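Tutorial handout. Part one gives the primary structure; part two gives the three-dimensional structure as tokens.
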Amino acid sequence: MTSSRRMFLGGAAGVAALGLTGAGVASPQRAFALGPLVMESKMLFGDAQAGPAAVPKPSGNGNYHSCRIPSIFAVPGSSVVMAVVEGRPDEVSDASGNFNLLMRRSTDAGLTWSAATSLAAATLYSWANPTMVHDRTTGRLYCFMLRRQPGDLHDKDPKVYLATSDDNGATWTDPVVRNDLNRRLPSGGTTNDFIGPGNGIQRSGGALVVPAKGRLIIKELGGDWANHDVPDGLYEVENGNRLPYGEGTVAERSDGQLILNYRALNAELNNGFPAARRIAIGNPGSWRLFGDEHWRTQIIDPGSHAALISHSINGNPFLVHLNSNSPERDDRYAMTLRASADDGETWSTYQRPLSHAPLANEGDLAGDLREGGYSALASTGSGIILALVEARRLQYDNPSLYDVNHNSPCAVALRRFDPNWIVPA
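Part two.
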């Protein structure tokens, strides 16, 4: 089966294709200064109340209400960075439907960016959970995604799709369904599913690994993608059965083992289990859980997605983690960077909240921004780390968490920083 290819429009061509000129170009388009102890930030996708900085719909009929669920990936051996998010046309909620995947491309390690174009937008289905990974042996860049049904059926039988690029994201195939990679119940029936979101990894031995609900999707050298089970959650539903973990991350430690990092399940948080990240270390078929607890209490979490990458800092291997440092359910607005120097065994030495370098107009009044929620990290060849973080525009003064989460349009901010911002040289 041959897939059609779509051109990724960058620079002036991409701007013209979206009908943007002059002040209508979505920021950032120019490089911004960066010192070793500086955290720089710019809006990269959307902002429903920022006028010309909002992302137009492909139809030209207005702007996206919200952009959410970021993925960012720096292509190894190049200065190319790809960023992909969900463009939600009508409202911020998961059930609002008809999401498109929007992408921007940088060819200078995140200094400047093209205008936004669509990676997946066909039909009224929702394209969701972008998750990118690169194969250094073939040069192919993959983007996994889910195609969800419209509206209230969004959590019923989503399907795994895969788009690929062989020119570092300049052009992409149309997404192709991979029914063999869908999550299925033990009975064989259909069920809700999640991929990533964010990024997968290539292991030192060459295998590609992508996190997904209840499993890892792995491509061994010379083979095809296949599902591999991971440990289930803590809460017993019935007869000893436990629910699978959903959205999560994966990284490879310096000792060659994988570290899995999943968000707590709602059923766990509702039944007295700690608000913290769920961790497993090892390899498919042989996982070491942290004691009998299954969680890492050094990384508290309100039940939201997080980001995790490996990155060399001052010549030493580190794991870098970004999530909301809050134990309160649904409070996703205490975003904190952490770094672990011992392969994720401890996380308490190096940590710093993003509030030490707040976004412009961040506050608690109508029109202000509230940063936090889903995030993604990328390690560039220049040593700089890039992060994408959700940021919501408040509609009321001193809003409740419900108002922030359900009534505030969401944008995605780019954070760019030297790792010495967390780990001093």
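Part three, for discussion. The radius of gyration is 20 Å. Helices lie at 11-17, 266-269, 401-407.
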